[in-house]
Amino acid sequence: MQEKTTDELNDLLENMKPEQLGAYFKDNEKYLASDKKAFYYYMKDVLEEKRIKLKDIYSFAGVTESYGSKILTMEKHTRDRDLILRFCIAGHFSWDETNRALKLYGFNELYAKDPRDACIIVAINNRVYDLSDIDELLIKQGLKRIAPQEKITT
Fold first, then answer.
1. pLDDT tier for residue 149 given thresholds of 50, 70 and 90
2. How far apart (Å, rounded) are the C-alpha atoms in residues 119 and 147?
3. Are the C-beta atoms of 74 and 38 separated by less than 8 Å?
4. Exposed, middle or buried by CB within 10 Å (0-12, 13-18, 19+), for 118?
5. How far is Cα 104 from Cα 115, in angstroms, rounded to an integer?
6. pLDDT at position 27, please?
7. Domain limits of the chain?
8. Which among 90, 76, 83, 96 has a CA at the least distance from the CA of 146?
């Protein structure tokens, strides 16, 4: 059985009556986002919309496909906010999309009062999605780079 898209679920909800919600939840339980699935489905939907492949995201973010997949599905949890930022940058996410992804994963949104976050916001708003260009911007401001020094495999 093929997975239902968000659009298909939206169509079901469009003219639904409140008393039909119980059946909707029962019939579509496996497609509904749990706290853990919400991040994954959000990332997947945005990337699909932008026609960007997950394997490209992992490579760009400096992680192996198996590790990246575990982080995205939250099978493994990372404390590395930069990794989620790199996923978003690789996916050409807007500032709003990046903030939503960070929030769904459990991290703070990009914060304009934080100098490093401010640089990343400016890069995203100017569609600078190359990590070395973003690193250059960060380093010029005396801030920590975002690109990983080596591929992460754990």
1. low
2. 14
3. no
4. middle
5. 23
6. 85
7. 1-32, 34-140
8. 83
CATH number for the domain formed by residue range(s) 34-140:
1.10.260.40
- Region 81-85: mean pLDDT is 95
Question: Which residues, at least 6 apart from 117, have a Cβ–Cβ distance to it below 8 Å?
Answer: 110, 111
**Residues forming a β-bridge with 44:** none
* Whether the model pTM is above 0.85: no
On the question of pLDDT at 154 being above 60, the answer is no
> Mean pLDDT across the stretch 118-143?
94
Calculated CA dihedral for residues 127, 130, 134, 137, nearest 10 degrees: -90
- According to DSSP, the residues that pair with 152 across neighbouring strands are 63
- How would you classify residue 53: left for phi > 0, otherwise alpha for psi between -120 and 50, otherwise beta? beta
Instruction: Tell me the helix, strand and coil percentages in the chain, rounded to 5.
Output: 60, 0, 35
* Helix extents (H) in 73-114: 81-90, 95-105
Measure the CA–CA gap between 107 and 103, rounded to whole angstroms: 5
